């Protein structure tokens, strides 16, 4: 089984990357092949509907999305929405990549302000892409991370492990 894990922050020091890395480790312990796509490392051009789609990072994005049996998407909350970098990545994709595939979502908020708006935003966009977005979701606050952006909050790590297991079970139930 292949799961595409997406880290949706383009920041150099990113808590979302720490969140996605934790999920990657959990999934790998379950024997899953993880396709790790990071909006900061695999920087994409702005979607213009033209030749920028031939950029090697866009090709990697579309190849991963095509190969994936399921998705675990992580976003930061920026101004009550998902990051622009993540939305730009989705604009290179379409329903053919997501239709009938399960997707789990999680967010990082800051200063106790939230994360729920980013998740609602992300859920709406994934639904528009025909992903089968699971009802479970999770938010971590920036205080759950150390200064190397590693997720050190034990309850969050346990919950994300449960969610990784749930994603694997649903994906298997769908015949993958
Ligand atoms: C431009 C910007 C806007 C933000 N807006 C919000 C917000 O609306 N709600 C919130 O809970 N946190 C907000 N934050 C805090 C981030 O969610 C938090 O710093 C998070 O760790 C960022 O993830 P990253 O390090 O992966 O980029 C904002 C941070 C930035 C940089």
From TrEMBL:
Name of the protein this chain belongs to: Azobenzene reductase
Gene Ontology terms for molecular function: FMN binding; oxidoreductase activity
One GO cellular component term: cytosol
Domain of life: Bacteria
Annotated ranges, domain NADPH-dependent FMN reductase-like: 1-139
SUPFAM superfamilies: Flavoproteins (SSF52218)
InterPro entries reported for this sequence: Flavoprotein-like_sf, FMN_Rdtase-like_dom, NAD(P)H-dep_reductase
Xref: Pfam families: FMN_red
Homology family: Belongs to the azoreductase type 2 family.
């Amino acid at each position: 089984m292949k799961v595409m894990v997406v880290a949706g922050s383009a920041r150099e020091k990113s808590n979302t990357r720490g969140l996605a890395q934790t999920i990657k480790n959990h999934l790998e312990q379950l024997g899953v092949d993880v396709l790790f796509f990071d909006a900061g490392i695999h920087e994409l051009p702005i979607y213009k509907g033209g030749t920028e789609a031939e950029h090697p990072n866009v090709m990697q994005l579309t190849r991963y999305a095509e190969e994936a049996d399921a998705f675990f998407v992580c976003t930061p909350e920026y101004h009550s929405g998902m990051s622009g970098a993540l939305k730009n990545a989705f604009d290179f994709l379409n329903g053919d990549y997501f239709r009938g595939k399960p997707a789990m979502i999680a967010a990082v908020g800051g200063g106790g302000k939230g994360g729920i708006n980013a998740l609602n935003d992300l859920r709406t966009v994934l639904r528009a892409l025909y992903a089968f977005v699971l009802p479970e979701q999770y938010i971590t606050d920036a205080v759950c991370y150390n200064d190397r952006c590693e997720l050190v909050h034990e309850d969050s790590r346990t919950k994300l492990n449960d969610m990784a297991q749930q994603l694997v079970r649903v994906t298997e139930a769908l015949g993958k």
